[in-house]
Automatic annotation (TrEMBL):
Coiled-coil region: none
Organism of this sequence: Paralvinella palmiformis
GO cellular-component term (any): microtubule
Name of the protein described by the UniProt record: Uncharacterized protein
Family that this chain belongs to: Belongs to the TPPP family.
Single GO biological process annotation from the record: positive regulation of protein polymerization
GO molecular function annotation: tubulin binding
Amino acid sequence: MSLQEVFKSFCTFGDKSAPPLMDGAKFAKLFRDMKILDKNMTTTDVDIVFSKIKAKTERKINFKQFQEGLKLLAEKKYPGDGEGYGKLKAVIIEGKGPATHSTTKVVSTGAVDRLTDTAKFTGSHKERFDETGKGKGIAGRKDMVDTSGYVSGFKKDDQEK
């Protein structure tokens, strides 16, 4: 994976149709996900560098500005080391792409299963589902009146016999 591919993967994280421009949150996410932050380079440093490299009226940076930011952060991360940019670039390239943290997990508890079991429904709610548990649709929600005769007890088949 190249540096530009890593840049694009973080730009499009959460929105695959996004243009290859990175905002401040995704710039900071890159350094958090790659576990690059330490006492020499903090999230505050990342935010300050981002505000330095972006244009005054813009909110996002392109790949060229991203590389400038890496150079500035390499000086902060590896002070006095002439190869700092190469080291930082190698760490980013070797790392994996953007990761999801604290996403919503599916709950499977007994209460949910018990509340959604249609076999245990009673009364008018029971009429909304067939014996397999599938909903009947509008027929299960409304009282459908049989209008085949002129009185409720009329059955045409019984009269003909």
